[in-house]
TrEMBL record:
Domain Pseudouridine synthase RsuA/RluA-like span(s) in chain numbering: 92-242
Organism: Lactiplantibacillus garii
Biological process terms in GO annotation: enzyme-directed rRNA pseudouridine synthesis
PANTHER family xrefs: MITOCHONDRIAL RNA PSEUDOURIDINE SYNTHASE, RNA PSEUDOURIDYLATE SYNTHASE DOMAIN-CONTAINING PROTEIN 1
Record's protein name: RNA pseudouridylate synthase
Gene3D superfamilies: Pseudouridine synthase
Reactions it catalyzes: a uridine in RNA = a pseudouridine in RNA
InterPro entries: PsdUridine_synth_cat_dom_sf, PsdUridine_synth_RluA-like_CS, PsdUridine_synth_RsuA/RluA, RluA_PseudoU_synthase
Entry similarity comment: Belongs to the pseudouridine synthase RluA family.
GO molecular function: catalytic activity, acting on RNA; pseudouridine synthase activity; RNA binding
C-alpha cells in the first residue's frame, strides 16, 4: 500500500531544498527521515535527497508507504450514506456537515452510526476511506474536516493545533451580554464534582481563550458567533456557562436543557489551508433551520 504525490514547486519555494519544502508543508520530521532512508524522493523523475535544491516548476515526487503512519488503514465499518452532506472535497480531504445527534466516530469495535461510518459508505464507490482529524461533540452540528488518506492526517493535525485552520461556531445562549464583543479567558480543567464535566479555575485548569460576538437577540436569548484560540474539552460550553449564558439545550451546563430539542451549537465555518499548498478555502456550513425560528427559541 502506497500513496504517491507529484507536487509542482511554486515560485515562493524556488531555491529551497526538499527538506525546507517538507518542513513548510508540516510533514513530520519522522516521516521526512523515512522518505530519505527509503529513497522515496524524486525530482523530475530523477532520484533526489532532502538536500536537493528545487526550482519553480519542478516536479517533486514523494512516495509514502504504510509503515510511515501510525494508522495507515481506515477500518470504519460502512453505514448508510443517505444522510451524508459534503460541503467541500478535494483529493486529500473533505468537509462534512455533521448532523446534531450523530457521533463523530465509533467508540467500540464493530460500532456503526457515526459520521465516519456513514462516510465509509459514501466514499466506497471511489475506493477512498475516511481518516479522523478532529471531532465535534455528538450534540454539535456543522463543519468537520475528514482526511482521505493517512498522509495528510498529521499535517491537518498541525494546521489545527497551530490555528492555521480556523473554526467558527454559532450558539444560541441564555440571557443578554453587556458588550457586543468580548473574550472569555478563564482557564479550564476537570470539574472535581462531576467527571463528565469541565469547569473554570479548577485544580488542573489550563489556559483557554474564546472570542464572542453578538449576532442577534430575542427578548430573553442571544445568538453569538464564537471562535477558539485554544481547544480545551467543552471549551465553548464551559466558558458560556461560567459567564452566566449557558448554551440552550446543553445537558451538562444548562439547568433548563430539557426545554430545547437539541444543543444549540453549530460549527458554522472552517477556514482551511490545503495540505501541500498555500491555497486557503473558506467552507461555510449553513445554520440549521431551527436556528432561524426565533419564536420557538425565545421559549426554550
Amino acid at each position: 500500500m502506497s500513496w504517491s504525490y507529484d507536487l509542482t514547486i511554486p515560485s515562493e519555494l524556488a531555491g529551497q531544498t526538499v527538506r525546507t519544502c517538507l518542513q513548510t508543508w508540516l510533514v513530520p520530521k519522522r516521516i521526512q527521515g523515512q522518505l530519505r532512508q527509503g529513497r522515496r524522493i524524486r525530482i523530475n523523475q530523477f532520484p533526489a535527497s532532502v538536500a536537493s535544491p528545487l526550482q519553480a516548476g519542478d516536479h517533486l515526487q514523494l512516495t509514502f508507504i504504510a509503515n510511515d503512519f501510525r494508522t495507515p488503514v481506515s477500518n470504519y465499518l460502512p453505514d448508510s450514506a443517505a444522510t451524508v452532506s459534503v460541503l467541500y472535497r478535494n483529493a486529500n480531504l473533505l468537509v462534512v456537515n455533521k448532523p446534531a445527534g450523530t457521533k463523530s466516530h465509533p467508540n467500540q469495535p464493530g460500532e456503526r452510526g457515526s459520521i465516519l461510518n456513514h462516510l465509509a459508505a459514501y466514499l466506497a464507490p471511489s475506493q477512498q476511506a475516511p481518516y479522523m482529524v478532529h471531532r465535534l461533540d455528538q450534540m454539535t452540528s456543522g463543519a468537520m474536516v475528514v482526511a482521505l488518506n493517512p498522509v495528510v492526517v498529521p499535517i491537518l493535525d498541525r494546521l489545527i493545533s497551530t490555528k492555521v485552520i480556523r473554526r467558527t461556531y454559532y450558539a444560541w445562549v441564555r440571557g443578554h451580554f453587556a458588550q457586543t464583543f468580548g473574550q472569555f479567558d478563564a482557564p479550564i480543567g476537570h470539574d472535581p464534582a462531576d467527571k463528565r464535566k469541565r469547569w473554570v479555575n479548577t485544580f488542573d485548569a489550563q489556559p483557554a481563550l474564546t472570542t464572542y460576538q453578538v449576532v442577534t437577540t430575542t427578548p430573553r436569548q442571544t445568538l453569538v458567533k464564537l471562535s477558539l484560540t485554544t481547544g480545551r474539552t467543552h471549551q465553548l460550553r464551559v466558558h458560556l456557562a461560567a459567564s452566566g449564558h449557558p448554551i440552550l439545550g446543553d445537558p451538562l451546563y444548562d439547568d433548563h436543557a430539557d426545554q430545547a430539542p437539541r444543543l444549540m451549537l453549530h460549527a458554522q465555518a472552517l477556514a482551511l489551508q490545503l495540505p501541500f499548498s498555500t491555497t486557503s478555502v473558506f467552507v461555510p456550513a449553513p445554520l440549521p433551520p431551527l436556528f432561524h425560528q426565533l419564536g420557538l427559541i425565545e421559549h426554550y
